[in-house]
Amino acid sequence: MQNHLLFNDNNIGFYQHIKIDTFKSFAELQGFDTCIDVATIFPYLQNAKILLELGAGYGRVVRGLLDRGFKGKIIAVERVAELIDYLKIHIPEIVVLEQQDLKKLSLDVAPDAITWMWSGILELSPTEQAHTIQHLHSLMAKGGRLFIEIPRKVKYVGVHIGEQRIKVEAEWGKIDAYMPRHDELLDYGHQAGFSNITWIEYETSKLERIVYIFEK
Ligand SMILES: C[S@@+](CC[C@H](N)C(=O)[O-])C[C@H]1O[C@@H](n2cnc3c(N)ncnc32)[C@H](O)[C@@H]1O
Description:
Elements: H1 12-17, H2 20-29, H3 36-45, E1 50-54, H4 60-67, E2 73-77, H5 81-90, E3 95-96, E4 113-116, H6 126-139, E5 145-151, E6 159-160, E7 165-170, E8 173-178, H7 182-192, E9 196-203, E10 208-215
Parallel strand pairs: 1-2, 1-4, 2-3, 4-5
Antiparallel strand pairs: 5-10, 6-7, 7-8, 9-10
Helix pairs in contact: 6-7
S-adenosylmethionine binds near residues 15, 55, 57 and 101.
């Protein structure tokens, strides 16, 4: 059996041990510090009533939404305890869930927008990616939108070790990643039951990126 069939759980150490300043400097290195990704999707989610941010990290996306005047309720999911504490202290305006795994998240409300930005989906194996997109579809309100942001090319942080396999290695941990192809993403979406899938190509100051919008 190929060992990459499940790998998201083994990636947790990277974010348990990364320093917040280093995390922020990665965002800057890739041109995400300006939240150009959030600005790109903002017109498509600004009227959402309940927005779920997956893998919220230190709150970059959440902060980008609030700075742009987002008025809905924001629920943040993160599994690393130190990052959850950081979010609670620094962004008290939002709801931070207690250490949930986005792969099997349970919610008592149905979000009408879900953001999964900065290559978050790449940190799951293909099997996990497909299952998680199905699961997210089941959580969402009808007419809701799921935003998945990925690179068009991999640069700066990861090295390709196969056509679609990427490894990020640092002194404090490693991430195994899988870059889904365009047709795989569309398959995930159609199999999950999304009624419409579109995408927007955009650029940060450093990278060529793309956001997929899956509409339920
Ligand atoms: C690349 S960072 C993105 C942070 C933030 N969304 C942003 O765009 O700035 C990925 C984040 O997802 C979190 N994460 C990864 N797998 C997760 C899982 N299964 N459940 C919850 N959070 C997860 C990591 O701990 C990390 O904070």
